Amino acid sequence: MKAVRVHEPGGPEALRYEEVPTPEPGPGEVRVRLEACGVNFIDVYHRKGLYPRQTPFVLGQEGAGRVDAVGEGVEEFSEGDYVAFASAPGGAYAEYAVVPADRLVPVNVTLVEARVAAAAMLQGMTAHYLTHSTFPLEEGHVALAHAAAGGVGLLLIQMAKMRGATIIGTAGTPEKARLAREAGADEVILYTERDFVEETRRITGGQGVHVVYDSVGRATFEGGLDVLRLRGYMVLFGQSSGPVPPVDLQILNQKGGLFVTRPSLAHYTATREELLWRAESVLSWIGNNTLKVRIGGTYPLAEAARAHADLEGRRTTGKLLLIP
Ligand code: NDP
Questions:
Q1: pLDDT at residue 207, rounded to an integer
Q2: ipTM for the whole predicted complex goes beyond 0.85
Q3: Reduced to 3 states, what is the DSSP secondary structure of residue 167?
Q4: How far apart are CA 63 and CA 92, in angstroms?
Q5: Where residue 322 falls among pLDDT bands split at 50, 70, 90?
Q6: Which atom of ligand 1 lies nearest, measured to the CA of 316?
Q7: Would you say the CB of residue 171 lies under 6 angstroms from ligand 1?
Q8: For a Cys staple, 241 with which of 208, 219, 263, 310, CB 3.0–4.6 Å?
Q9: Nearest CA to ligand 1 atom 48
Q10: How close is the Cα of 1 to the center of ligand 1, in Å?
Q11: Is 238 in the pocket of ligand 1 (CB under 6 A)?
């Protein structure tokens, strides 16, 4: 099969589109013939070696398609079923992916197309756990979310509104700000032109926000602590601008008894029950039009490097997909 592999960590040029053996499903595993593979910022960290892995490896962890073969002991799925997933240990930028059956989610393609399911799994479940579990938003809460027009960002804005919260977004360009507003953001700060700390304070009448959802990391973390109200929550869940340097914990005391957490999707989909709760919530909202998924770019699998260059170059909005 064709797949995109990394042999040496590096820039987008480190992605090699090449022929590799088609993987066989082992016991408890399922092989999926992919209709679309999701591109996520974590793939950039893996490509660059920020999260080191043994090379060579097939990049990617998200996708959707049809079950093509099942391993011993798999009863829940059979050939031809439509499925989606957000974790494929053997990689997902490929024509086929092998996934543990207990990480697969059934997809009703009459309600949600396979491509849309591929676009919604990882970022959708992330927005779900952030807004429903890490800091469960309620009416009366005021939240700040960075990179609001990104893949996670647009979904997070919509879910925050579903929970009845007020949400302020940040965005890098006026076009991105428009998309974040369309998704439901109450206010959007163009943080490439304005100081988001001052703007957030102004918007909240000096009160600050209950929670900051920060996926940008190095460039925004410190400012984020300054816009939290007393006992506010800093939810650091990414590092698109680079890792946050070590922090003196005393600062949390000085700034008002703040909380900081650094969660991952794996922590919030640890059991099958939790995985299905989040995935099925996301898919059902898409199916009944409560949640909109913006596919901001579709690339042939062979052009994964171009998708990476666009994502890292801050040129994208919503979700990027690769089509094998
Ligand atoms: P996005 O679509 O959000 O793309 C990244 C965005 O970050 C850019 O479009 C840009 O938006 C913003 N950004 C700010 N500074 C930079 C920079 N220096 N370089 C590149 N981008 C920058 O990506 P995803 O939705 O895939 O992921 C968003 C973040 O969430 C990532 O950090 C990712 O690692 C994290 N994540 C974490 C998960 C978890 O469970 N912990 C799960 C899923 C994602 P703008 O131009 O508007 O600033």
A1: 97
A2: yes
A3: strand
A4: 6
A5: very high
A6: 9
A7: yes
A8: 219
A9: 172
A10: 30
A11: yes
Q: Are 102 and 209 contained in the same domain?
A: no
| Cβ of 60 less than 6 Å from ligand 1 | no
Cα–ligand 1 centroid distance for 169 (angstroms): 13
Domain termination site, one of 237, 262, 287 = 262
Residue nearest to atom 12 of ligand 1 (CA): 147
pLDDT at 200: 98
Same domain, 246 and 181: yes
Instruction: Please report, for the domain that includes residue 233, its CATH number.
Output: 3.40.50.720
Burial of 78 by CB count in 10 Å (0-12 exposed, 13-18 middle, 19+ buried)?
exposed
Q: Give the DSSP letter string of 251-289.
A: HHHHTTS-EEE---GGGGS-SHHHHHHHHHHHHHHHHTT
Q: What domain range includes position 158?
A: 137-262
How far is it, in rounded angstroms, from Cα 99 to Cα 229?
Answer: 43
- Residue appearing with tokens 């799994």: 121
| Residue 52 CA, ligand 1 centroid: distance in Å | 19
Q: Is 3 exposed, middle or buried (0-12, 13-18, 19+ CB in 10 A)?
A: buried
Express each pLDDT in 43-66 by its tens digit. 999 999 998 899 999 999 999 999
